[in-house]
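Predict fold of Alanine racemase; 370 aa.
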Amino acid sequence: MPRPILATVHTGALRHNLGIARERAPDARVWAVVKANAYGHGIERAFEGLRGADGFALLDLAEAERLRALDWRGPILLLEGAFEARDLELCSRLNLWHAVHCNEQIDWLAAHKTQQPHKVFLKLNSGMNRLGFTPAAYRTAWARLNALPQVEEIGHMTHFSDADGARGIAHQVALFEQATDDLPGERTLANSAAILRHARGALRGAGSLAADWVREGIALYGCAPDFPEHSAAHWGLRPTMTLSTRVIGVQRLQAGDTVGYGSTFTADGPMRIGVVACGYADGYPRHAPSGTPALVDGQRTRTLGRVSMDMLTVDLSGLPDAGIGSEVVLWGRAGSGALLPVDEVAHAAGTIAYELLCAVAPRVRFEAAD
Ligand SMILES: *Cc1c(COP(=O)(O)O)cnc(C)c1O
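Predicted 3D structure, encoded as tokens:
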């Protein structure tokens, strides 16, 4: 028997979560962001649930090829554009839209002999200071692109740094509007947090800004971008991945006994603990401290002691029927229907759900279910 650890991808939940984006931004087309192998779900599995999207956004050319191999003929956007000049050949061949965020990418386009004119999204750095042209340089970049016969369509794009937090998006929206005001072309601004928190507010106020394309990632995968202020349930999102395994050992502890490497947990009385087939080599966060939630036989309990490479330990106090073979859900949906949002596990471990979903290790078996 293989190790009992399993990641189940819920394609019905992906479909449902896409529907939530459509409700929040009804006039927009949706780029389903499937970078990082669909946030760890696997492009091919996620595609089953997300084929109703208007387009797919990612950054790896090999992932774009995988989407085309699934017979997806619709739009695909490379969020970071070409990494070197010869990437443009593949962009032509696969008919990819691509971001243009620096002058070098415009030089490559100018030198590119293409059969097929390119569709690009020019990227504005409106304050994130990651990729993009400054507002002062934006128009010159647009004029250069616009003069190229290789380029057929120029859209406009920016990315928010604080859509999930108190600072919000208004300052970036204002810069974007100034920079792009009288330029033709489609617009794309919103990530998940902006779709959920601002599509009915600041973005709607900005006229067509919500109305072209939104770029939705984490919310498609059932997580709240603004946890713990809001939960996935608050936004009506359903978990799209369950990481489950089983209890493979049971120990009885007395007061003063410790658990695991470094003896970081000490029992203060008699208790029963379960040893679980999941460790950091499966992608479970080693930083998750004692007390991180888990479900055993659908009941909520907590981890104890340090996570090791292949195992971790859970408290079975109050679970007299649990033992070898009991179902353990590290995040997602138990057989009983009980839920443990990955947001809660990530929060306990001092990180975000994005990181946990992306980090599920190749040795974990994946399965798609509806
Ligand atoms: C990852 C990414 C997104 C999606 O962000 P979420 O917070 O997962 O919705 C949108 N736009 C760009 C440019 C990205 O890199």
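The domain at 241-369 is CATH 2.40.37.10 (Lyase, Ornithine Decarboxylase; Chain A, domain 1).
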